[in-house]
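Task card 7
Instruction: Convert sequence to structure tokens.
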Amino acid sequence: MMPFTNRVTRLFKIDYPVIQAGMVWTSGWRLASAVSNAGGLGLIGSGSMYPEVLREHIVKCKAATDRPFGVNVPLLYPGADQHIQIIIEEKVPIVFTSAGNPKTFTSLLKQHGITVVHVVSSSKFAVKAHEAGCDAVVAEGFEAGGHNGREETTTMVLVPAVCSSVTIPVIAAGGIATGRQMLSAMVLGAEGVQIGSRFVASTEASAHANFKTAVIHAKEGDTMLSLKQLTPVRLIKNRFYNDLEEAQKNCATSLQLEALLGKGRAKKGMFEGDLDEGELEIGQVSALINTVEPAADILKKLWIDFEAALQHPLK
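Output:
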């Protein structure tokens, strides 16, 4: 596989414009280092980590790769400021922020020489990220797993809209798991892709084997966006999802929904493997994922498929 050069690969000092999303309970140092070693950009997902656990993952990732890696910090979670401080102390070179105001930490991170990328679900927020000083944005469409935009704008619409709104590099996310999908995103103007769901179904992902099995068995229509009253999140339909939908149909208040969520639902589902009562966050593209493979093999196949599609786009 020949390395590829554009603004995204130069920004992150990587061989291929492929970023592994930093997902809660699934993206620890093993997955991040494996993707970085394979020539992409691996991200540690800090949203499910206590501060000192994040520090441990950063230290282990440094030991496992000499390539660039980053940390994803969802700003909606408590303790984001502690995570940012640890990232600065450990001299992590790249930070992806999401689910919050990009102005919160961007200037501080930039003062320490850290490359900053923000995840957005609309052109309006892309402009705000650009104005805040971010080096790039991730345009994440409605198809994506995990926390999602309220506007329900699909990747096919969002990516060209964001590309028309900012001059910094745009990375496409949401519904991308194959090289042909990657090419489609780049034809729309993106200069790289962020991939989550496909890397959940990797041997290095810290997700429970039960959850990985559920992902590779998922079909079209098996995921839905839920909890728009609180923070929208895409979930695999299971008993917990059905309980949420029933509560919402019965006009449950935000407090009642928060009580139903309780604590640790995502951990129970994705990390501990409870497929009935756990929260199972994954994207629509899970319908195209059929195998659990090493992260390096996933990236290699993605790039081979991308190059083949580039040579024969109409086949």
